[in-house]
């Protein structure tokens, strides 16, 4: 066992990378749930985003086009969920689970010819001087653009929800869809847009895994990150900055336990592997002990009768 | 100001199986308070939804100050100057007062300016309100103020109010009327929907009466008796409940120093409540919603347990018995919330009859349900209480409020209780059904049962109670003989109006607001 082999700077830099897919998916789902819709299909949209992004970037040779394609595919897949729940008025839990199963199958089918292929690498930020600084450089200034986008997106979602009129309408729809309808807001339209935003974010998160975190394609490679994202939104009490905190905590412990495994710590691997899930949820449960702000219409079907 | 503000002509709207409005026509003048009267299901809500742009008429036209008016959505109606205070408040509990107001406006100013405006208007009209408070923490009266201020900030020409006084104390009603009169003096027209006839007589200039979707008459309320208006509304002579006076019997229900912590964090703590109800007596308990009514019902029905000796029935301690054990002893209850508390919405009437009637009506044998006698019991309730439904297999949710209320009250009364506790027995029920429910309660008392009737409808309590008390913040006022109580005395018993000032209607205030 040699703990000195663990480099704290690299640890922090890689925890940010590990946290980003989770952060992206969870921020998207946060917006969806704030509009009063519970989409359990995050995992399915992520894995479809992972293969779509992979395929797009391999075929075009551009990782950026791949990422954009992943977001579009995630949003398209979420439209299926939107159609089922907003027009056919199907149960949201069942539709979301179906979406996940469908996404897992679809991605396996799409990915058959991409196993073992290497995608083009995403360029990293390389600022002269800044990126070469010791400690600060690798942590803050040498990542890929999507990682910064994730943090910026968190800030934007927070600001839009808190200060803007669009955010207010979104929260109102999630809080009491009947009242929002009575005041003349388009509940279904707002929700479809929110669902598509969530789908795009989940697709982006998936592509981050297949293009940047583990640059390769394997079936089922999202490995439950979508489910963690769902739990994260709840335990973060629907607050964007807490989602960021939770994602980094999860990413951090995940990277740490991998390092500990590599360093040969005398704890069975299974315990280490489960630790990120346990600790993240434990911390968030303690933090959400204040009154949790679940949107009051969450998961309820809206039908504008009369 | 004179002239016609809104003219409605031949409006018709049909839903599958029912014509909600059938060629309704009437005019609203500038600066008048116009009443829209009618039973539940008479089509009042559909009509105002058409004016507010939520529902499109099938045929007919509306004219706004001489120009054609057909708002495709509420936004367009608001832009023309129509504002609406909804019966079931269209508020968002988790948002602040200012955010709620902003949601009802077309072009809200920045939050800081809006907060200042809200303070301004609320003081001007005597409706104090803090813009930063979360709506979920407000009382029903304060919530209504949020709705009214939301409307006032848009400077409406026509203010639609749907059953505004059902949640207010008499003092709050008085202040609301002063606000409305002030608005009227400033030239705003008000369309006032209510079935409380005395209110309409004091407040309104004209009244249009709807029955089954048709305009069946207009009148000037101040010159028409409440009884005549009621009969126009019902289309039939109205039966005033009659009662046989019984001699004071033995004490059946005795509650001593009942204190109880609420089961949910937003509930009201009951504080040292004591009262007695004799056989054949109806005790009416008034008070604004949220002052301990639900908790008191829970304590009496057995949903919340206390020390055994706190509640006794004919001398037997029952405070520590659950609902079924109490039912066995003849203590029955009908809670306020029909769907979800008094009845399971998606279950049939037969199944709902079984849920409370199983014990006293012997509807189960060795753990098996006797469906034949359960159905018979449900059918008995339906015929005895004139519940309009296709049959006992209908889901509770499918019944209208009034019919379901008749069913849940009937279900308890037919079990022949010794003690019956009802909360809001005629809430949201039309006049004819309300009269029959009240008559059934009086008959039950005549047969020797002790009845506790919790209600926010003071007219109802005055009509049927022998004694009256009021709940205020979990405390019970002194119990008084109901006969001879004045509205002022009742208001004081209910704790009066909190933190309210009457709006100033004198000249300087108007100059400021203009």
Annotate the secondary structure layout.
The complex is a heterodimer of chains A (306) and B (514).
Chain A: H1 8-34, H2 42-60, H3 63-87, H4 92-110, H5 136-140, H6 145-163, H7 165-175, H8 177-182, H9 187-213, H10 225-235, H11 240-263, H12 269-287
Helix pairs in contact in A: 1-6, 1-9, 1-10, 1-11, 2-3, 2-4, 2-9, 2-10, 3-4, 3-9, 6-7, 6-11, 10-11, 10-12, 11-12
Chain B: E1 4-15, E2 18-29, E3 33-38, H1 44-51, E4 59-64, E5 67-68, H2 74-80, E6 82-85, H3 97-103, H4 111-124, H5 140-152, E7 158-162, H6 170-185, E8 189-194, H7 197-203, E9 206-211, E10 214-219, H8 226-234, E11 251-260, E12 270-278, E13 282-286, H9 293-301, E14 311-313, E15 316-317, H10 323-328, E16 331-334, H11 349-357, E17 364-365, E18 368-369, H12 371-384, H13 401-413, E19 419-423, H14 431-446, E20 450-454, H15 458-464, E21 467-472, E22 475-476, E23 480-481, H16 487-493, H17 507-513
Parallel strand pairs in B: 3-8, 3-9, 6-7, 7-8, 13-20, 13-21, 16-19, 19-20
Antiparallel strand pairs in B: 1-2, 1-4, 4-5, 9-10, 11-12, 11-14, 14-15, 17-18, 21-22, 21-23
Helix pairs in contact in B: 3-4, 3-5, 11-12, 11-13, 12-13, 13-14
Summarize the structure in words:
Chain B: It is found in: Cell membrane. Chain B: Keywords: ATP-binding, Cell membrane, Membrane, Nucleotide-binding, Repeat, Sugar transport, Translocase, Transport. Chain B: This is ABC transporter ATP-binding protein. Chain B: One of its GO terms (molecular function) is ATP binding. The complex is a heterodimer of chains A (306) and B (514). Chain A has 306 residues and is mainly α. Chain A has one domain: Orthogonal Bundle (ABC transporter involved in vitamin B12 uptake, BtuC). Chain A contains 12 helices and no strands. In chain A, helix 10 crosses helix 11 and helix 10 packs parallel to helix 12. Chain A starts with 7 loop residues before the first helix and ends in a 19-residue tail after the last helix. The mean pLDDT of chain A is 88. In chain B, helix 3 packs across helix 5, helix 11 packs parallel to helix 13 and helix 12 crosses helix 13. The chains are: A mainly alpha (306), B alpha/beta (514).
């Amino acid at each position: 066992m040699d703990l000195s082999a663990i480099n704290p700077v690299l640890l922090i830099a890689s925890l940010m990378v590990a946290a980003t897919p989770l952060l992206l998916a969870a921020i998207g789902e946060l917006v969806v749930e704030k509009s009063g819709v519970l989409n359990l299909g995050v995992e399915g949209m992520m894995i479809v985003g992972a293969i779509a992004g992979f395929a797009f970037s391999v075929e075009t040779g551009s990782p950026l086009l791949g990422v954009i394609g992943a977001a579009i595919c995630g949003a398209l897949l979420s439209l299926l969920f939107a159609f089922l729940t907003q027009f056919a008025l199907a149960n949201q839990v069942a539709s979301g689970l179906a979406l996940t199963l469908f996404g897992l199958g679809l991605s396996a089918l799409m990915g058959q010819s991409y196993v073992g292929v290497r995608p083009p690498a995403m360029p990293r930020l390389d600022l002269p001087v800044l990126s070469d600084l010791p400690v600060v450089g690798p942590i803050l200034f040498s990542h890929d653009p999507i990682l910064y986008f994730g943090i910026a997106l968190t800030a934007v979602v927070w600001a839009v929800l808190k200060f803007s009129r669009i955010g207010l309408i979104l929260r109102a729809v999630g809080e009491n869809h009947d009242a929002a309808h009575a005041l003349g807001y388009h509940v279904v339209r707002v929700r479809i847009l929110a669902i598509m935003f969530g789908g795009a974010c989940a697709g982006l998160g998936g592509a981050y895994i297949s293009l940047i975190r583990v640059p390769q394609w394997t079936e089922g490679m999202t490995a439950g990150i979508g489910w963690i994202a769902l739990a994260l939104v709840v335990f973060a009490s629907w607050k964007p900055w807490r989602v960021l905190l939770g994602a980094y905590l999860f990413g951090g412990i995940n990277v740490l336990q991998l390092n500990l495994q590599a360093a040969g710590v005398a704890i069975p691997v299974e315990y280490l592997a489960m630790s990120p899930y346990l600790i993240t949820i434990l911390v968030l449960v303690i933090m959400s002990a204040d009154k949790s702000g679940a949107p009051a219409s969450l998961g309820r079907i809206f039908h504008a009768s009369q | 100001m004179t002239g016609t503000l809104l003219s409605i002509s031949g409006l018709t709207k049909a839903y599958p199986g029912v014509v909600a409005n059938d060629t309704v026509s009437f005019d609203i003048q500038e600066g008048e308070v116009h009443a829209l009267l009618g039973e539940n299901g008479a089509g009042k809500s559909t009509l105002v939804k058409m004016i507010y742009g939520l529902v499109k008429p099938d045929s007919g036209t509306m004219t706004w100050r001489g120009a054609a008016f057909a708002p495709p959505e509420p936004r367009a109606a608001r832009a023309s100057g129509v504002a609406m205070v909804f019966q079931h408040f269209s508020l968002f509990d988790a948002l602040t007062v200012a955010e709620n107001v902003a949601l009802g406006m077309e072009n809200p100013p920045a939050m800081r300016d809006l907060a200042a405006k809200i303070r301004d208007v609320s003081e001007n009209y005597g409706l104090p309100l803090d813009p930063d408070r979360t709506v979920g923490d407000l009382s029903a009266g304060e919530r209504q103020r949020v709705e009214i201020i939301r409307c006032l900030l848009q400077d409406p020409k026509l203010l639609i109010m749907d059953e505004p006084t059902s949640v207010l104390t008499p003092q709050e009603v008085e202040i609301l009327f002063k606000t409305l009169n002030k608005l009227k003096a400033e030239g705003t027209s008000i369309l006032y929907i209510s079935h409380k006839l005395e209110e309409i007589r004091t407040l309104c200039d004209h009244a249009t009466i709807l029955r089954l979707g048709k305009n069946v008459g207009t009148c000037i309320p101040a010159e028409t008796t409440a009884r005549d208006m009621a009969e126009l509304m019902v289309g039939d002579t109205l039966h005033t409940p009659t009662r046989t006076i019984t001699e004071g019997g033995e004490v059946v229900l005795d509650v001593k120093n009942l204190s109880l912590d609420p089961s949910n964090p937003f509930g009201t703590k009951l504080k040292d409540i004591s009262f007695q109800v004799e056989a054949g007596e109806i005790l009416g308990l008034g008070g604004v919603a949220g002052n301990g009514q639900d908790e008191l019902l829970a304590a009496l029905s057995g949903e919340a347990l206390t020390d055994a000796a706190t509640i006794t029935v004919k001398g037997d301690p029952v405070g520590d018995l659950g609902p079924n054990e109490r039912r066995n002893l003849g203590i029955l209850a009908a809670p306020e919330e029909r769907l979800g508390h008094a009845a399971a919405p998606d279950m049939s009437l037969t199944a709902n009859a079984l849920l409370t009637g199983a014990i006293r009506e012997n509807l189960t044998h060795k753990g098996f349900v006797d469906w034949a006698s359960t159905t018979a019991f449900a059918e008995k309730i339906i015929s005895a209480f004139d519940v309009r439904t296709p049959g006992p297999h209908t889901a509770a949710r499918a019944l209208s409020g009034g019919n379901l209320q008749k069913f849940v009250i009937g279900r308890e009364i037919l079990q022949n209780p010794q003690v019956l506790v009802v909360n809001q027995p005629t809430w949201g029920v039309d006049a004819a059904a309300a009269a029959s429910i009240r008559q059934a309660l009086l008959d039950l008392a005549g047969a020797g049962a002790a009845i506790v009737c919790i209600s926010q409808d003071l007219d109802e309590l005055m009509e049927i109670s022998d004694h009256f008390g009021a709940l205020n913040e979990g405390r019970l006022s002194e119990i008084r003989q109901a006969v001879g109580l004045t509205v002022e005395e009742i208001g004081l018993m209910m704790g009066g109006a909190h933190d309210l000032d009457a709006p100033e209607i004198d000249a300087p205030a108007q100059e400021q607001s203009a």
